[in-house]
Amino acid sequence: MQRWLTAAVLCGAAAAHATPVEWVPATVVQVAPERARITLDHARIGSIGMAPMVMPFKVDRAVDLRPFQAGDKVRFQVTSRDGHLQVQALEKAP
Ligand SMILES: [Cu+2]
User: Fold this and answer.
1) What is the rounded CA–CA span in Å between residue 40 and residue 28?
2) What is the mean pLDDT of residues 71-85?
3) What are the start-end ranges of the E strands in the chain?
4) What 8-state DSSP symbol labels residue 70?
5) From ligand 1's centre to the CA of 85, what distance in Å?
6) How confident is the model at residue 19 (pLDDT cuts 50, 70, 90)?
């Protein structure tokens, strides 16, 4: 019984992470940490069918924007909620 429960828990955890997260390449154009905003020159975003462009994004408060500056090559994850795009993750390009 104990073994079965462990397997079930592990399966649930795997399923929660089954959806691949899209990392989108971009270049930072402007950063406003105090407003939780960033302007990115981003590559195509496949998950929402958006063409490459320069545009401002709202950024999740959990993301620390202070290490970033204009010109940085980055990659980011974006979610669309109620029609509003929000950057959920951001890091320097690997
Ligand atoms: Cu865009």
Assistant:
1) 5
2) 92
3) 24-32, 37-42, 53-59, 73-81, 84-92
4) T
5) 9
6) low
Distances (CA, A) of 77 to 1, 46, 58, 71, 72: 39, 11, 12, 18, 16
pLDDT recorded at residue 3:
58
CA of 69 to the centre of ligand 1 (A): 19
Where in the chain are the domains? 21-92
Q: Which CATH number fits domain 21-92: 3.30.390.30, 3.30.200.20, 2.40.50.320, 2.60.40.60?
A: 2.40.50.320
CA 56 to centroid of ligand 1, rounded, Å: 8
Residue 67 has pLDDT above 50, yes or no: yes
pTM for the whole thing? 0.78
Q: Which two tokens stand for residue 70?
A: 């204009």
